[in-house]
Specification:
It contains 6 helices and 5 strands; from the N terminus they run αββααβαβαβα. With 164 residues, it is α/β, with parallel strands linked by helices. It has a 5-stranded mixed beta sheet with strand order 2-1-3-4-5. Helix 3 runs parallel beside helix 4. Bound molecules: zinc ion.
Length: 164
């Protein structure tokens, strides 16, 4: 963990709440892309609003970040996410060339509805990526972030579970 990680995660969490409130039903997930101590882009989950299964907070942020940065690859950047990235967002981060992924709540802190696979942690793919300088840091403000989401064992209505 770096000195600023808690500060950026706190900013991401504040952004999630500012945009989407604290009700887990509104999926208040936020991401921030930071390069050399400066924010390049931020975003929240817009899957429901945009009828777009790919509009996860990390993807929204990488799209905005690439446009702002002027390159699809943002070497040296850190992607902060309030929730452990799913497989799609993990791979998108690899393709975007980011150098660090820092997340808040991990998959054991939240309901299984947030992930696509039962047993595999798709973050493990990072170890097998050609890009061998991608650092992974999890559990930053984990409890505070997990408070925004459905927890393991929560009785989540079937229609809200997009991975089913
Ligand atoms: Zn995702």
């Amino acid at each position: 963990m770096q000195r600023d990680d808690i500060e950026w995660m706190s900013t991401a969490r504040d952004h999630a709440i500012a945009e989407k409130g604290t009700d887990p039903a509104n999926t208040p997930i936020a991401a921030i892309l930071v390069l050399d101590g400066e924010e390049i882009a931020r975003g929240v989950n817009h899957t429901a609003e945009c009828c777009d299964a790919t509009a996860h907070a990390e993807i929204v942020t990488l799209r905005a970040g690439g446009a702002a940065f002027g390159d699809m690859r943002i070497e040296g950047a850190t992607l902060y996410s309030t929730l452990q990235p799913c497989g799609m967002c993990t791979f998108a981060s690899i393709w975007a060339g980011v150098s660090r992924i820092v997340y808040g709540a991990g998959r054991d802190d939240v309901h299984e509805m947030y992930f696509e696979d039962r047993h595999l942690s798709t973050l493990d793919f990072i170890a097998d990526a050609y890009k061998d300088d991608l650092e992974l840091v999890g559990g930053v403000l984990a409890e505070a972030c997990a408070d925004l989401y459905f927890r393991p064992g929560d009785d989540v209505p079937e229609e809200m579970q997009a991975n089913d």
